[in-house]
Amino acid sequence: MKRIVGWLVIAGMMLACGGENTSSNVQTPGGEKSGKTKVLEAGAAAIQDKTPINKLTIYLDGFHFYNGQLDGQMEAHHYCSKLNEDLTQCVIFDGNGDSAKIMGVEYIVSEKLFKTLPADEKKLWHSHRFEVKSGDLIAPGLPDVAEHELMEQVVSTYGKTWHTWHTDQDLELPYGNPALMMAFVKDGQLKPKLAQDRDKRFGISMQEKRKQREDIKAPPVQPGADSWQTGETIQLPALTGHKHEHVKQSSFKDEKK
Q1: What is the mean pLDDT of residues 159-164?
Q2: pTM metric for this prediction
Q3: What is the DSSP string of 135-198?
Q4: Can you tell me the distance from the alpha carbon of 147 to that of 151, in angstroms, rounded to the nearest whole number?
Q5: Could you tell me which residues belong to the region Disordered (predicted)?
Q6: For 36-60, what is each residue's pLDDT tens digit?
Q7: Measured distance CA(107)–CA(131) in Å, rounded
Q8: Which of 52, 51, 33, 32 is closest to 41 using CA atoms?
């Protein structure tokens, strides 16, 4: 019953709660919207059905880094929809205001589903155990009780994340190939300034979140996840002449040799 009540509370919360406090760093080129465009947008908003978007009822905020490059870190705002008890899909933005840019997607599976993945597939996924227990991952706007209930479910899950717009460096347009992202697994990896800035904007304390979650039972991370820790850093090959040399590039095909 507790779990059912928790999800009812979560589903009933407005996405705006705890939002509109993080601006996008990206300034895209292009002319201002014309009056005609604004009218078309208003009409579409009033008339068109947006069922898939309306299903994005869960808002999570955390941090990612480029697989193979721990120093390439950024905040990630996840807007998610649970497809069922074992599978969740998220659209990731670089902010939570009306100028936010879509920078990627994340798929989240339960431990049960993760165990069924082929060995090579598991290398693409990261664990959420440390993100939850450390207070790294939050659900902005949710009451502590509801957030705690949500984190009890997330702690044993695994995510596969691709960023299609590297908004920490591409401040105009989404250049280059998608990048596989990972999550932190121990203290000292997340840059303190990123955490401090996030906590200030949301009026929270990551350390307080950690204390609140001490009672959350966290199973051991399944073998195969967080493969970067064993030196297997998977990325798509860099485009010829592309400027993003800081992301260590290696193809999935190369990793299997």
Answers
A1: 98
A2: 0.84
A3: T-SB-TT--HHHHHHHHHHHTT-EEEEEESS-TTT-SSS--S--EEEE---STT-S-HHHHHHH
A4: 6
A5: 205-257
A6: 656 665 766 677 878 888 999 999 9
A7: 16
A8: 33
